[in-house]
Structure formats: structure tokens, C-alpha cells
């Protein structure tokens, strides 16, 4: 955990959300968009890469399985098209609509990458966007940080 704090303090493009009561901390990248269901989305032209946030992986615990959709599948923001399973719970994946153009096959053998590197090696899928307007409905890093802090305060 100390390494996470050190890493976050060294990288200017990150924010740290913390709550002193449990020592809770999550890294929030400034260049990503976020869904209320705790997925991150990185938009690059008409393509998007996404996975679950550091906040989500921290709450899920050790990830043991990642359900990946088939290449070419048309996915919708309103429908579940994959899941991340941990020893504690299952989290559905559905932050944005598009056609699946790439999946992170490494996760089939190493699902724990979602825990150790949720924003880099633990990305889940890449899609060609079908509705770019959906990305505008997602939260920026500041709104997501506030959303997490408010959610944390409720519990």
C-alpha cells in the first residue's frame, strides 16, 4: 500500500482519493473518463479502451476471473457484456457502446493484472465507438473523485 501512495505522489497526472477512517485510497487518472459503475474509459479518436477503476478493484478484492466478449460483438452501454469476478463479488462491465475490436487475452491467464495494474496492463477491452456522445455523459477525473468521496462518506 505504501508503494501505491509513493507512486501516486510522483505522477502529476494522478489524483489520490483517501479516507482516513479505513486508510482507503484510489488512484484516479486525469486523462480518463469514468462511469458511476466504476469503469474507466480512455477515448482515442473513434476508439475507446476500458477497464475497472482502482477504486473498483480495491473493493472487489483479488480478481480471479475476467469474462471477455467476442471480437466483433456489438456492445451497448445499457447491457452487460462482460464481468470481473473476485473472491468477494462480481462486477458487470458496460460503460460505453461500440464494436469490440480487441480484448486483453492476457487476463484469461492472469486476471490479477486487474488488481495490480488496473489502468495499464489490466485493461479489459477496446471498442470502436458507435455513439461518441455517450463519452460526454461520463465523469471527468474531478467529478469521479468527488463521486467516490461522497460514496465513501455514505458507508
Automatic annotation (TrEMBL):
One of the GO BP terms on file: glycine decarboxylation via glycine cleavage system
Main location: mitochondrion
SUPFAM superfamilies: Single hybrid motif
Protein name: Glycine cleavage system H protein
Organism expressing this protein natively: Brassica carinata (Ethiopian mustard)
Function description: The H protein shuttles the methylamine group of glycine from the P protein to the T protein.
Native organism taxonomy: Eukaryota, Viridiplantae, Streptophyta, Embryophyta, Tracheophyta
Comment on bound cofactor: Binds 1 lipoyl cofactor covalently.
Gene Ontology cellular component terms for the protein in this record: glycine cleavage complex; mitochondrion
Classification via HAMAP family: GcvH (MF_00272)
Residue intervals of the Lipoyl-binding domain: 47-128
Pfam name, any one: GCV_H
CDD domains associated with the record: GCS_H (cd06848)
Amino acid at each position: 500500500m505504501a508503494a501505491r501512495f509513493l507512486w501516486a505522489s510522483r505522477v502529476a497526472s494522478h489524483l489520490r482519493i483517501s479516507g482516513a477512517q479505513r486508510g482507503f485510497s484510489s488512484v484516479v487518472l486525469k486523462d480518463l473518463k469514468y462511469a458511476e459503475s466504476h469503469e474507466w474509459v480512455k477515448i482515442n479518436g473513434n476508439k475507446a479502451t476500458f477497464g475497472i477503476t482502482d477504486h473498483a478493484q480495491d473493493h472487489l478484492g483479488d480478481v480471479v476471473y475476467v469474462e471477455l466478449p467476442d471480437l466483433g460483438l456489438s456492445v451497448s452501454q445499457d447491457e452487460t457484456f462482460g464481468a470481473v469476478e473476485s473472491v468477494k463479488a462480481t462486477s458487470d462491465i458496460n460503460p460505453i457502446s461500440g464494436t469490440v475490436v480487441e480484448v486483453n487475452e492476457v487476463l484469461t491467464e492472469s486476471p490479477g493484472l486487474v488488481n495490480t495494474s488496473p489502468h495499464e496492463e489490466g485493461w479489459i477491452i477496446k471498442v470502436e465507438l458507435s455513439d461518441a456522445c455517450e463519452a460526454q455523459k461520463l465523469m471527468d477525473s474531478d467529478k469521479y473523485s468527488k463521486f467516490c468521496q461522497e460514496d465513501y462518506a455514505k458507508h
